[in-house]
């Protein structure tokens, strides 16, 4: 008798957020157990909006070389089990199963072979549809409650009742223009979860100087050093782009993860930009001195524009207290040393980030020690699950955030598919 009652009861699951984690969880669960009902909710008009936006719209959907060292959070090692159980090879296999072929670059970044982001969401959409997953778009969830053993979820206009399991995979606040929000943290708090403060990650940084606009648009490959409370924390080589608010570019996006995290903790954050990382300071000083000696009657400003951008040169002289009209022969050895020092270590105090609206990812989130690292089930509430960005895990630039979303979503899918 008990067996026949069990057969009559169809497992009913709600997934909040149709991003990478929610989508793969739905597909994995349905493939394991055809006899379950899955309702997938998303605030947008289509699924996978952040997948479409990844890699500057080219869809950098994964990275072929991933370890827990590519992640930040209270406990980055939390990712290890998921990354081991759902490796890049497993992701590749999953993609083939929905008809998606991948292009693996020498940098280990992974893109769809079609080079079109839309082909990714289209194939995921078709997979969900063929499995009979119910998709509710433009459905922003406003509340979740648990009555006895069942969950009810609400939008502004409707209520959906009697779910056996719920997955919260609707991310955090990065990219509010894609309807991103932090409602997942509100839902988590309701079920007695705690979370670490959120902050924008992979984002431009604001600096406290008054010459932003004068250097705007200058882009150069530099070495960037990050200092937290005066201590060297990190060094990265790459593009630096000077902007009207401060600095951006790939090197800045990479270093912004640790910078933004420490800003959220009210630490003193500074960076030092080295415009000539391959030349040591003394050699640079000698080279400038030699140039100035060769053409003593030429303006120092004009000579410097042969080395660096004509937008940087006047600011450089101003900082080093050299008259912009000064001839090269009038610049003394002490001033030349100051110029070379500044070019080797252009220090900038970081005051803020460009915010969630310009961030590629969010740091902070639901504390991972309150979530099972094998099933991603809540330790506070039975049959409640978390996956992807809503957790206090944020990856480096280059497809790492999406790979964690796929991996965590896959493990959740396996857990959801079990009766």
UniProtKB/TrEMBL annotation:
Keywords for this protein: FAD, Flavoprotein
Entries under SUPFAM superfamilies matching the protein: FAD/NAD(P)-binding domain, HI0933 insert domain-like
Top-rank taxon, per record: Bacteria
Organism: Poseidonibacter parvus
Record protein name field: Flavoprotein
Keyword Flavoprotein: yes
Record-annotated RsdA/BaiN/AoA(So)-like Rossmann fold-like domain positions: 12-414
Segments forming domain RsdA/BaiN/AoA(So)-like insert: 199-360
Cofactor dependence: FAD
UniProt key word Flavoprotein: yes
């Amino acid at each position: 008798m008990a067996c026949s009652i069990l057969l009559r009861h169809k497992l009913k699951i709600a997934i909040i957020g149709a991003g990478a984690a929610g989508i793969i969880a739905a597909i994995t669960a349905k493939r394991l157990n055809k006899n379950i009902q899955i309702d997938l909710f998303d605030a947008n008009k289509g699924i996978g909006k952040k997948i479409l936006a990844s890699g500057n719209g080219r869809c950098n959907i994964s990275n072929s070389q991933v370890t827990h060292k590519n992640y930040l959070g209270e406990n980055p090692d939390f990712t290890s089990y998921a990354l081991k159980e759902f490796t890049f090879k497993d992701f590749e296999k999953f993609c083939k199963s929905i008809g998606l072929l991948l292009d693996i670059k020498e940098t280990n970044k992974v893109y769809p072979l079609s080079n079109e982001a839309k082909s990714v969401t289209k194939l995921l959409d078709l997979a969900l549809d063929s499995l009979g997953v119910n998709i509710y778009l433009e459905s922003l969830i406003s509340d979740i409650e648990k009555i006895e053993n069942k969950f009810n979820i609400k939008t502004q206009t409707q209520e959906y009742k009697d779910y056996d399991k719920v997955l919260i995979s609707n991310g955090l606040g990065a990219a509010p223009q894609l309807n991103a929000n932090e409602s997942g943290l509100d839902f988590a708090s309701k079920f007695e979860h705690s979370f670490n403060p959120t902050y924008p990650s992979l984002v431009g940084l604001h600096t406290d100087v008054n010459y932003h606009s004068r250097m705007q648009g200058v882009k150069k490959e530099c070495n960037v050093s990050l200092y937290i409370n005066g201590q060297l924390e990190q060094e990265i080589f790459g593009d630096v782009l000077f902007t009207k608010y401060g600095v951006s570019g790939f090197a800045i996006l990479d270093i912004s993860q640790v910078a933004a995290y420490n800003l959220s903790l009210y630490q003193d954050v500074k960076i030092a930009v080295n415009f000539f990382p391959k030349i040591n300071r003394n050699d640079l000083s000698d080279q400038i001195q030699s140039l100035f000696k060769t053409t003593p009657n030429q303006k120092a400003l004009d000579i410097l524009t042969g080395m660096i951008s004509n937008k940087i040169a006047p600011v450089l002289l101003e900082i080093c207290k050299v008259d912009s009209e000064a001839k090269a022969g009038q610049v003394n050895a002490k001033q030349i040393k100051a110029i070379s020092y500044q070019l080797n270590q252009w220090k900038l105090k970081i005051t803020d980030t460009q915010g969630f609206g310009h961030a590629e990812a969010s740091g902070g989130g639901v504390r991972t020690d309150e979530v099972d690292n094998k099933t991603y089930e809540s330790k506070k509430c039975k049959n409640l699950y978390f996956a992807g960005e809503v957790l206090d895990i944020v990856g480096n630039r280059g497809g790492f955030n999406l790979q964690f979303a796929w991996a965590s979503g896959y493990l959740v899918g396996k857990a959801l598919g079990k009766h």
